[in-house]
Amino acid sequence: MNPKEPTTDAWYAISVRHKFEQMVSAALAGKGYEEYLPLHRSTRSWSDRSKELDLPLFPGYLFCRFDVQFRLPILTTPGVIAILGAGKTPVAVPERELDAVKTVVGSGLHLVLWPQLAVGSSVLIERGPLKGLEGITLDIKKKCRLIVSVPLLQRSVAVEIERDWVRPLSTSNAARRISPGLPSVAKVA
Fold first, then answer.
1. Which of 128, 129, 140, 138 is nearest to 183 (CA)?
2. What is the number of domains present in the chain?
3. What CATH number does residue 72 fall under?
4. How are beta strands 111-115 and 155-161 bridged, if at all?
5. Helices (H) and strands (E) in the chain, counts
6. N or C: which terminus of the chain has fewer CB atoms within 10 Å of its end residue's CB?
7. Which of 70, 93, 116 is the last residue of a domain?
C-alpha cells in the first residue's frame, strides 16, 4: 500500500517523546502519511523578552491516518512511543472528535487546555465560528467556555464562547448522543 494514495483509513493517536511532536509530525508527513498535530499560539515571557510560540495542543501526542494492519512504519519512526489503544490493540479516534478539534483550533478563539470531564447534558453551538459543534459548557469566572474532548487521550480543550451562541440539546436527544467522545454539559461555579 502506498501511503500517498487517497485513503479512508482511520485516524489513530500516536504517543511521542517529550518535545518530539513536530519532528515526528514532519517525519510521518515525509513518509507520505496524513498526520495532524494540533497547535495553539502561546506567549512565553522571559525577563528580557516575550515570544509567541506555536505549541502542541496535546503535548506528547499527534494523530495519523493509516491502515492499522501496516503500522510498522509508524512505530519505527524516531520519537514514536506507541499507538494508543486497549492493550496491544490500537483504537481509532472517531473522525467527528478530530473534526471538532480542527474546528476549535481553526476558530482563532482563545484556547485553554482542560482536564477530561464527566458526562452531563449536551449543547449545540448555533452561531459564531464554532457553529454546528456539540460540546460541554462551563461557567468559569463569569466566562462561558466550550469543552471539546478526545477521550482516548483523556484530554480536552476549552475555548471561550459567547453565551448567546449556545442552545441546550433536549435531555432525550443528549442521552441518545452521549458516548465516549461526545461532549456534554457541566456547570462549575
1. 138
2. 2
3. 3.30.70.940
4. antiparallel
5. 4, 15
6. C
7. 93
